[in-house]
Amino acid sequence: MAGKPTVGLTGGIASGKSTVAALFAGLGIPVVDADQLAREVVAPGTEGLAAIVETFGDAYLAEDGSLDRKKLGALVFDDAGARRKLNAITHPRIAQAAMKRMAELQSHPAPYVLYEAALLVENRIHEAFGALVVVSVDEATQVARLRERDGLSEAEARARLEAQLPLAEKVAVADYVIDNGGTREQTAAQVEAVHAKLVARFGEAAP
């Protein structure tokens, strides 16, 4: 990507990407959150939401007119064809919103921008970034976090994991790996170390 270096941040489901992103933000690094963009491009009144209703019907709208993400998520989790249709609607709009946000951050004094997204490696987008940081945890931790966070049974949590690209494959293409299986302090120390390496790689922040 042209302009200010952009670092991709990804990881497995329930690996703690948002926690790590917040730690980078605490070091003064601007973070572009793909999940937040995904919500914005299908907010009420957007072309994205209109396209979803046209494709899937208004049964996937909540009473307040917003997208029922849980209901649509259940559909696309089990139906690859529906998932492709949804991705065809959302992915180009998310990419456009991301480019706009990146352009707005070109004048930010930080030495790089962090782009947090779940599917960077799956969609081979990671190759466009100046560096890739992968958040890693062991499978047992992922299962436990999924069960606690989403109220899933162990079988449901493992099914979610099996539907994802194995975390080891993401780690294999990473420039930097952060193990988020320990304490927050341990994770923060790793983030600070990776940040120092990225600053050395891309240059100091602007004055």
Describe it.
The chain is an alpha/beta fold. The protein folds into 2 domains: 1-30 and 108-206, P-loop containing nucleotide triphosphate hydrolases (Rossmann fold); 35-100. It has helices at residues 17-26, 34-40, 47-56, 69-78, 80-104, 139-150, 154-162, 167-172, 184-202; strands spanning 6-11, 31-33, 113-116, 131-136, 176-179. The chain has a 5-stranded parallel beta sheet, sandwiched between helices. Helix 3 packs antiparallel against helix 5. The longest helix is centred in the middle third of the chain and has 25 residues, at 80-104. The protein is globular and about 50 Å long. The two termini are 23 Å apart. The mean pLDDT is 92.
Short descriptors:
207 residues; alpha/beta; Rossmann fold; 2 domains; 5-stranded parallel beta sheet; 5 strands; 11% strand; globular
How is this fold's topology laid out?
Elements: E1 6-11, H1 17-26, E2 31-33, H2 34-40, H3 47-56, H4 69-78, H5 80-104, E3 113-116, E4 131-136, H6 139-150, H7 154-162, H8 167-172, E5 176-179, H9 184-202
Parallel strand pairs: 1-3, 1-4, 2-3, 4-5
Helix pairs in contact: 3-5, 4-5, 6-7
